[in-house]
Amino acid sequence: MPRGKKQCESCGHLTGPRSLHCPNCKKSFAFKPKSKEHKSNKIIKSFNWRELKKGDRIKVSGGPYFVSNGESVSMGYRGSFVVDSLDNKGIRAFGVDKYSGFCHIYMGENSKDDSTGMLKIRHNIKKLIKKNNV
Fold it and tell me: 77-93: buried (b, 16+ CB within 10 Å) or exposed (e) per residue?
């Protein structure tokens, strides 16, 4: 089979990898099921982070990074976390999945420290709510 193609199981027709249906026989392709977290949680993208409460689950990405000689190294957190408390510059939380331990998720103003090369950029957060609680 050529690279970048997939084959229909019923008729053998080759088609593009992102096709939802076979153009020849109109049969639907099987896709990988969504993650367990995606099935059981509702994701809220826009909310005020200062309204989070102890025990809320959040999904985190982005955040501060270090720049040296044109290369950047991420210093932020990624993954799912449970909120413990809030302060004026961020969220104190502990990891749920592979990121266990206590952390401070920076949510303050974006700034640059020229002496250290740190770019302090707020994390991107999404609130996770169990679908059966909605």
Answer: bbebbebeebeeebbeb
Do 64 and 120 touch, CB atoms closer than 8 A? yes
Left (φ > 0), alpha (ψ -120 to 50) or beta: where does 19 sit? beta
Residues contacting residue 59 through CB under 8 Å, at least 6 positions apart: 43, 79, 80, 81, 125, 126, 128
* pTM beyond 0.85: no
Cβ(96)–Cβ(118) under 8 Å? no
pLDDT digit string (tens) for 7-28? 998 898 999 888 889 999 989 8
